[in-house]
Specification:
By secondary structure, the protein is α+β, with helices and mostly antiparallel strands. Helix content is 50%, strand content 7%. It folds into two domains: 73 residues, 3-Layer(aba) Sandwich (Glutaredoxin); 106 residues, Up-down Bundle (Glutathione S-transferase Yfyf (Class Pi), Chain A, domain 2). The chain contains seven helices and four strands, in the order E-H-E-H-E-E-H-H-H-H-H. Strands 2-1-3-4 form a four-stranded mixed β-sheet, with helices on one face. Helix 1 runs parallel beside helix 3, helix 4 packs antiparallel against helix 5 and helix 5 packs across helix 7. It starts with a strand and ends in an 11-residue tail after the last helix. 36% of the residues are buried.
């Protein structure tokens, strides 16, 4: 399988991390979004939405959207439960990640890390802080009760939220007031075959 992505992207890192945790080999292809490489015709032919990550299967079929990719790859492993309610809880947290977490924490990080916090984006960056802390507080509440987001077993819900949460300080979010999140980050980093995000 081929994985098109950017090592510094949390959405791409979700896939990269899961592949290491489940020993799933993929061939990596770097894609530079700042150079508009996702707008190239050959890329758009694979993903008309023009975003990374993109997974291309051996037979040429393609999957996009990071959480769809990791759930596909995790099928049949302990990272994706088969019980309908527990599976729905995993998806619940993944929808939360995309709608209540990523739009704040990931965007603030992008403005700061990728763009260098330009003055014309400062107000937008500042406006992301409250929403990001609200999302972190929701996670903190759950992680005070259970070791992982869906009980005692790590799942793709944790992979989804870990990717941008563990680098949230790069977006201006201090994690010092979230001890349960900090402990959860350490538990994930202690998993067998854990792969840290590459440092730029």
């Amino acid at each position: 399988m081929k994985l098109y992505g950017d090592h510094q992207s949390g959405n791409c890192y979700k896939v990269e991390l899961l592949c290491h945790l489940i020993n799933k080999p993929v061939q990596w292809f770097d894609v530079n979004i700042l150079n508009h490489e996702t707008e190239a015709a050959d890329f758009l032919a694979k993903n008309p939405n023009g975003k990374i990550p993109l997974l291309e299967l051996d037979d040429g079929r393609c999957l996009w959207e990071s959480n769809a990719i990791i759930n596909y790859l995790a099928a049949g492993t302990d990272f994706l439960p088969t019980d309908p309610f527990t599976l729905a809880k995993v998806q619940q947290w993944q929808f939360f990640e995309q709608y209540s977490h990523e739009p704040y924490i990931a965007v603030a990080r992008f403005i700061a890390k990728y763009l260098g916090l330009p003055k014309e984006r400062q107000a937008e960056y500042d406006a992301k802080q409250a929403g990001g802390h609200k999302a972190l507080a929701v996670m903190e509440t759950q992680l005070k009760q259970t070791p992982f987001l869906v009980g005692g077993q790590i799942s793709t819900a944790d992979i989804s939220l870990y990717a941008y949460t563990h680098v949230a300080p790069e977006g201006g979010f201090d994690l010092e007031s979230y001890p349960a999140i900090q402990a959860w980050i350490q538990r994930i980093a202690a998993q067998n075959n854990y792969q840290p995000m590459m440092v730029s």
